[in-house]
Amino acid sequence: MDDRNSVSVHHNEISNYWVGLCLQTNEANVYENRVHDSCIGAFVDTNVDGAKVHDNAISGTGTNCRALDGSDNPIFGGQVYGIVMSGAINTVVKGNKIHDKLGLGYGIAIMDDASGAVASGNLVEKNNVTGNEIDIHVETIGKKNVVKKNNVCASSFPSGLCK
Q: For a disulfide at 41, which of 17, 31, 35, 97, Cβ 3.0-4.6 Å?
């Protein structure tokens, strides 16, 4: 998704990539895809505004997620992700099923980007997120990020975000 036009991506099966779905387009609509055995299921890029990531199935972590030094440590700072919003704005993540990201990654993450872009106005609701070290992780100075309590999950940072 190239950040030039409105885009809708749906009904795909994607496997064995570092990033299965990379959203770089404002108001992208990404739904009903099956992403498995990838390091990151869906990555919402910095300053992307108004993306919708909904009703996708994201599972597993492929062997391609090894550190660049060849060790068994996963890439991306020791983590893998189901869906990550890194400095994204007004993104809706809804109705996704995210399972088994090596038992040590994040299911859904809202975070500020290393460039300084701040995640704000994002909504996470009605997702089923299990089998991750942290199912839902929110670490941003941004305002108006909402994680509703209707997500099915077992662990969160900060605590209390799971049903």
A: 35
